[in-house]
Specification:
Helix 4 packs across helix 10 and helix 7 packs antiparallel against helix 10. The protein is an all-alpha fold. The two termini are 42 Å apart. The protein is globular, with a radius of gyration of 25 Å. Helix content is 71%, strand content 0%. The longest helix has 40 residues. It contains 14 helices and no strands.
Length: 295
Amino acid sequence: MSTQVLKKQSSYRLSDIAIMLIVGAAILVCLLPFLHIIAISLSSKHEIMSNNVTFFPRDLDFNAYQIVFTDSRMLWSMGLTIVLTATYTLISMVMSIAAAYPLTKDRLKGKTFFMMLIVFTMFFSGGMIPDYLLVRELGMLNNLSSLIFPTMISAFNLIILRTFFTSIPASLEESAYIDGSSHFSTLIRIVLPLSLPVLATLSLFYAVHRWNGFMDALFYITKAELYPIQLKLYQVVMNSMVTDLTAQEGANQAEVIPEGLKAASIMFATAPILLVYPWLQRYFVSGVMVGAVKG
């Protein structure tokens, strides 16, 4: 009997080691490119040109960050993107809640049909050209509304939220109705407070989606003053001369090559969303897992 226990323990240890190795490899695959970008952004011109930079800075130099943080257009795009992301996330969450909560009620006529339509949009869409034509006909070109309304509800997030709502005991809502609470009051006072994990998780999903999005801005926005930070970053990465950041001549700018500016711009655009994530991390796993319990 003891021999069998020892065999089981050894097999558990081997499986644990294998899992740790796989997870460690996945972490390295995600982390090493990020460390490489940080190292380039903090390295000197000579070390970058000599291809001596790997995962640690060589000959520490902050000139690239100095240029990025003193570029008024980059700072304006950052501020605009923060406001845009916050507005988009708020509107998306309000619309998702307003759609998901009624879909949990059996007395809603056509509930199955509505769910079929929602799932249908996850697999089929009109395509890029019809989307552009629709946005143009609605007069939303060169308007921030074109970056909010076309994608303000994610069918995937909506299904997760609806599934979470269905996991809340119906007896709680029934007790509130007996006490004279309306549907809206029950949603605000009972359902949403119990749904903080999934609300925080989906808010993070929406915020990251909007923060990282640039394709819709590339199609719909042509005014430079309306460029979100990711579109500015796209221009910096795609233009070898980094014209947006080196328009004015100066001694400090002459010391920095495009690779350093690209890396510093990437870090500048990535840092805010990385700072937000730790605040929502404790809700992340529980929100997704609880939302996946019931179908």
